[in-house]
Amino acid sequence: MEAESPEGSIDPRYSSPGARAADWSAARERVARAELFWLSTVRPDGRPHVTPLIAVWYEGALHFSTGVEERKAHNLAANPEVVLTTGTNTWAEGYDVVIEGTAVRVREPGRLRALARAWEEKYGPVWHFEVHEDGGFQALHGMAEVYAVAPRTAFGFGKGETFSQTRWRFPAG
């Protein structure tokens, strides 16, 4: 269930004169439609790690998966704080969204089945998953853990004729 939309605040230091805060519902729709995200995690020794991946928006959180032996899975075991970024790779057009939050492992079979359907609906049959008995997705090379990131803070960056930086803060919990 989606929480109420937080009110955004514009940062005039990084926005064009007269820019207005964007509406979270519009940013959330951009996130839901986005095909590619960049996940930033921190290695156990403190060094950053960034990798592209696909994700789905479902019930108020952005969800991604990772193989249990992948670098990001090891990073998340040590520190679940993440940043997910999506947008356009251009300077003067488009819109970028950054979501900060805690990655929480999803294990409940019913929710995993719903997420598997959401992945396939969004990305097609090449991304068909079965739910693994240990609480994840059965992937080509073994089990993949699934994580949910409910936004704690999000930023929207408008580009083009009017540049803007909107910040949304979400209630805890």
Automatic annotation (TrEMBL):
Record flagged with keyword Transmembrane helix: no
Keyword check for Oxidoreductase: yes
Family annotation (SUPFAM superfamilies): FMN-binding split barrel
Keywords: Oxidoreductase
Pfam families, alphabetized: PNPOx_N (PF01243)
PANTHER family to which the protein is assigned, alphabetical: HEME OXYGENASE HI_0854-RELATED (PTHR35176), PYRIDOXAMINE 5'-PHOSPHATE OXIDASE-RELATED FMN-BINDING (PTHR35176:SF4)
Protein name: Pyridoxamine 5'-phosphate oxidase family protein
Biological classification of the source: Bacteria, Bacillati, Actinomycetota, Actinomycetes, Kitasatosporales
